[in-house]
Design goal:
CATH architecture of the largest domain: 3-Layer(aba) Sandwich
CATH class of the largest domain: Alpha Beta
Organism: Corynebacterium kalidii
Number of helices: 16
InterPro entries: Ald_DH/histidinol_DH, Ald_DH_C, Ald_DH_CS_CYS, Ald_DH_CS_GLU, Ald_DH_N, Aldehyde_DH_dom, LUC3-like
Strand order of the largest sheet: 12-13-14-11-10-16-17
Distance between the termini: 58 Å
Largest sheet: 7 strands, mixed
Radius of gyration: 24 Å
Protein name: Aldehyde dehydrogenase family protein
GO molecular function: oxidoreductase activity, acting on the aldehyde or oxo group of donors, NAD or NADP as acceptor
Number of strands: 20
Keywords: Oxidoreductase
Length: about 475
């Protein structure tokens, strides 16, 4: 039972901060009230534990990460049930059970990556003769060694998966870690860390649930060598400023507003399902989801109709109902953002093909909404809505689509859709984004590096590049 997890993390004490179910408003638990002093103690403990964790070596640390993955698997259903109650995301579809399963998969994948490092120069020397000692040659290697303590600040939309993305690589490379979850979803992350620590040595992984004061202290703490952050652009800027005093290393994965470009040789009926889920995964609450579609004239009308048909039929409701695959928005503030953007688009003359009219009642439910005939500079297009409302902009050709896709100051992900892969790749090369998917969208893979450009942040996660990002390069020369 997920209630056992709540007991284990002291989330049943009513003196803590009440955490509501976004689908019903019912209080599901109480987050322990922790503050800056708790964070300082966690950083001190992580600092003390780090040398011993580093000394275990890559092979043993990888074994322990696999054991942590086994612990996640053993508690998978309880974690998924709690995740559903706290975030609102349904159990099924690309939602809670999938997120928990990906935690285990990511830990195992990270444990299995080859340790980064390389030989830079290896040239034999000259042995010399007589009294001449000769030339020993040139030898240099590049290694990646631990930073020390890594701070991980996570969001509320994928709280478990992104926490694992942040800490798995950090731990694998010999760092210890301190996690600060979102104030909206602390219970899931506290429970995940509790489960992971059933396999990890004492002191290696800590979590501190608190407010902005805790996040601010973590960002500037002199004992933290690196910050991993996923979240909004304004918060990312604040973290960068707070870390400047100690020149912290940073990985910032910030807002996206990802474009999808639909070329004129596509079959709208064939791509509509994949495009829909590229946009509406986690009810649109995903940084790298499709947020704006640029469709060429030849396919525009048919694509709009196909997406509207899917949106109208996809079941939305409480995540604990096994039949639902779309849930509520996680918090009322996000509901208001989506509703205001859709209302503004409607007022400006855009057509609401389906949705756009929340029913009211309990829960933060906003219906899956498809918006057509919307201007390219409408706020619903140029601002990241982060919810279940998708604007579709009509364009003349690929050139106009690329220009509009590149016109914003963000560049996390993008996608190009075409029946001709070579043509799609040619267009993709002109799109400014950290990742451009071809005939798909928002498909993370632990082997493939991921990160943004422009205001979407900097630094890479995942794969060998992700391991390097949570380590310091060191050259051995001679």
């Amino acid at each position: 039972m997920y209630t056992d997890l709540l007991t284990a993390i002291d989330a049943t004490d009513p003196s803590g901060r009440a955490i509501p179910d976004p689908a019903t408003g019912e209080v599901i638990g109480h987050a322990p009230e922790q503050g800056v002093d708790d964070l300082d103690r966690a950083v001190d403990a992580a600092t003390t534990a780090q040398p011993g964790w580093e000394a275990l070596g890559h092979e043993e640390r990888s074994r322990l990460l696999r054991a942590a993955a086994d612990a996640v698997d053993a508690h998978a259903e309880d974690l998924a049930q709690l995740l559903t109650r706290e975030t609102g995301k349904p159990l099924n579809g690309p939602n809670a059970r999938m997120e928990v399963a990906m935690c285990g998969d990511w830990l195992r994948a990270t444990a299995g990556f080859e340790t980064p490092g390389e030989t830079l120069v290896s040239e034999p020397g000259n042995a010399g003769d007589g009294g001449d000692t000769g030339d020993t040659g040139a030898h240099a290697t590049l290694a990646y060694e631990p930073i020390g303590v890594v701070g991980a600040i996570g969001p509320w939309n994928w709280p478990l998966m992104i926490t694992v993305w942040q800490v798995a690589a950090a731990l694998r490379m010999g760092n210890t870690a301190v996690v600060k979850p979102s104030e909206y979803t602390p219970l899931s992350v506290l429970s995940l860390v509790h489960v992971l620590n059933q396999a990890l040595p004492d002191g290696v992984l800590h979590v501190v649930s608190g407010g902005r004061d805790v996040g601010a202290r973590l960002s500037g703490h002199p004992g933290i060598g690196k910050i991993m952050f996923t979240g909004s652009i304004p918060t990312g800027r604040a973290i960068a400023a707070a870390g400047a005093g100690t020149l912290k290393r940073l990985t910032l994965e910030l807002g996206g507003n990802d474009p999808a470009i639909i070329l004129d040789d596509c079959d709208p009926a064939a791509i509509a399902e994949d495009l829909f889920w590229g946009a509406f995964i986690n009810t649109g609450q995903t940084c790298a989801a499709v947020k704006r579609v640029y469709a060429t004239d030849a396919v525009y009308d048919d694509l709009c109709a196909a997406l509207a048909e899917i949106a109208a039929a996809v079941p939305m409701g409480p995540g604990t109902d096994e039949d639902n695959v779309l849930g509520p928005l996680q918090n009322p503030a996000q509901f208001r953002i989506v509703a205001d953007l859709v209302d503004a688009a409607r007022d400006a003359g855009a057509r609401i093909l389906t949705g756009g009219d929340p029913a009211g009642g309990p829960g933060n439910f906003y219906p899956a909404t498809i918006v057509s005939d919307v201007a390219s500079d409408n706020p619903l297009v140029v601002e990241e809505q982060f919810g279940p409302a998708l604007p579709i902009v009509r364009v003349r050709d690929a050139d106009e689509a690329v220009a509009l896709a590149n016109s914003l100051d963000v560049g996390l992900g993008a996608s190009v859709w075409s029946a001709d892969r070579d043509r799609a790749l040619e267009v993709a090369r002109r799109v400014r984004a950290g990742t451009v998917w071809i005939n798909g969208h928002a498909k993370p893979d632990p082997r493939i590096p991921f990160g943004g450009i422009k205001q979407s942040g900097y630094g890479l996660e995942f794969g060998a590049e992700g391991l390097k990002a949570v380590a310091v390069p060191k050259v051995y020369n001679g």
